[in-house]
Amino acid sequence: MSRFHLRSTIFAALLLTLALLPGHVTAQLGPPPEPAGNPLTTAKANLGKALFWDEQTSSTRTVACGTCHIPATGGDDPRSLTDPLALHPGPDGLFGGADDVVASPGVPLTDATGKYLSSPTFGLTEQATGRRTISSINAGYSSSLFWDGRAEDEFVDPVTMAVILPSGGALESQAVGPLVSDVEMGHAGIVFTDVLARIAVSKPLAVALDAPAELLDWLRGRSYAELFEEAFGTPEITAARVGMAIASYERTQFTNQTPFDEFILGGDVLTPQELAGRGVFVANSCDRCHELEIMSDHDFHYTGVRPPDDDIGRMEVTGLEDDKGKMRTPSLRNLELRAPYMHNGRFDTIEDVVEFYNRGGDFDARNKDPFVRPLMLTQQEKDDLAAFLKRPLTDPRLAGEEPPFHRPTLYTESGRVPVIEGAGLPGTGAIVPQPVALEPPMVGNPGFTVAVYDALGGADALLVIDDVDPGLTSPISGDFAFESIVLEGAGAGAGFGSVNIAIANDPALAGTEWFGRWYVTDAGGGGTEAVTPVFRFTVFEQIDHGDIFIDGFESGDVGAWTSSSP
Ligand code: HEC
Ligand code: HEC
Q1: Does ligand 2 lie within 6 Å of residue 331's CB atom?
Q2: What is the pLDDT of residue 246?
Q3: Which atom of ligand 1 is nearest to 179's Cα?
Q4: Helix (H) or strand (E) holding 499
Q5: Which residue in 131, 141, 133 sits closest to 70, CA to CA?
Q6: Architecture of 259-393 per CATH?
Q7: What is the pLDDT of residues 63-119, one digit of tens each?
Q8: Ligand 2 pocket mutation pick from 357, 383, 385 by most atoms within 8 angstroms of CB
Q9: DSSP assignment string, 457-480
Q10: Into which CATH architecture does domain 42-84+105-251 fall?
Q11: Is 187 near ligand 1, meaning CB less than 6 Å away?
Q12: What's the pTM value of the predicted model, to 2 decimals?
């Protein structure tokens, strides 16, 4: 062997060693792979974006995929940190223990007719998911999704059970799940054909307040059938196509413009502290699991966040005792925007997570990963590590939801959600019954549900909605609604009921304001009836995103689609 060859062999071996060093990253994060059976097209991604942000895909018309996956918070749910309804009681079923999970609110438990049922855990209000939301951004790199990996590589049409994509379809498999979950988006007993029927009768994004100009340009006021035709060649709205469209949109949602990506490309962009933090990250084997550009091995580990019996994680899928409590390693990209952390959302800050790893986790089990052990980091090292986990991993386009992360404004983010205000009158047990009014008061909404809870079980209840506050004594009429029901449940404060109102498809209703209360026949509070606080709403017209062209406005003209046309 010549000296030249020897030298190049040594050089090659050295390169190989470098490449094999854990955490050695060599390239900027590329776009996620596309399965052969579902190549990415603009039409499919646009359709997927409309579906992802359309709250009409949920039984109550109040929850879209995007409700729990907001780009400005890294594709995670900002409500987890702020909304009391985000709390799930965990395995013991009781609120207020260490096993509680900080998660995401979905829909109230609803039946197929749109009436609300009482959930044993959440009553009449929105139910929370059992785990913290995982980001839908950068989700296209793994061959299995969810904390336990139950959304698999092979995509099977949930209606026909035909294998649509033999591999590479984890996003597609995942996307068809939440639509038929009676916690996240669906009603009790929902099947996927119910979802397809709902999509077919909905005007795309009719409840969204506005949408990015490019998306409006593409929608042009067309029906979902027309949009499916453009994306897939024929107008059929099928489960496979819903999954493939949403997955296509999600494949456009990846963040590779972080300082870390520039650093990988050789850029001198990290501060000395961030660089030191990168050193702490590698020296303490964080990159054994949070590896490669995506900062995840997509594998399952028990790290001692909770006792393994609390949430058996991967074992739910494999049945293997050794998988008990294992969760899929989350990517660390955009971590800073995505609090709270871990599958149970129990850590509010990155510093809390660093402390968790520094003490070697909080619980032990036979299958705990040996790399999670006490690290004895100095305060300086902890600070450096936290600094590395923040700015360097965060794509600056997310916070302001810049393209491609721009999106429609949800109904629930608008001022259109009914407002509950004022005082009511108590009934038995000195309990004031409470109203529920969440759903879009939209012209032509065939199922606008309002409910009452915390009332006397079995009592008669009267719903009155009128153009003035009907007051604290039941009136004799109501122009919008006047309906009596018998409450379900037994005992003080345990009664509940709901009414499903069809709002006429009459444009003259748009802009009218209404006030509603429930009157429960219950003398236990001293008077003759218990009364809820008032709920107030203004009926809005279905937003016809096509009007902007009919009216000759530029699609970038906000006024053109926020004000409805006659
Ligand atoms: C009510 C809140 C909520 C809604 C609505 C919701 N999700 Fe999620 N999403 C979650 C939660 C919670 C998880 C984690 C659940 C688990 O792992 O058990 C999750 C996980 C995911 C993941 C997995 C990411 C990963 O890396 O494993 C993707 C992708 C995703 N959701 C996309 C969607 C899509 C698409 C829709 C609409 C069809 C949707 N979500 C609707 C809360 C929600
Ligand atoms: C043995 C594999 C493994 C090692 C080593 C590891 N992690 Fe993790 N990491 C995980 C898993 C798995 C989770 C999710 C655990 C859960 O929620 O139960 C996680 C969660 C996290 C989270 C929360 C992310 C989120 O979206 O909620 C952060 C931050 C984190 N790890 C940082 C680190 C740091 C810093 C180190 C090194 C000190 C480290 N990890 C070492 C596997 C690992």
Answers
A1: no
A2: 98
A3: 38
A4: strand 495-501
A5: 133
A6: Orthogonal Bundle (1.10)
A7: 999 999 999 999 999 999 999 999 999 999 999 999 999 999 999 999 999 999 999
A8: 357
A9: TT-EEEEEEESS---SS--S--SS
A10: Orthogonal Bundle (1.10)
A11: no
A12: 0.93
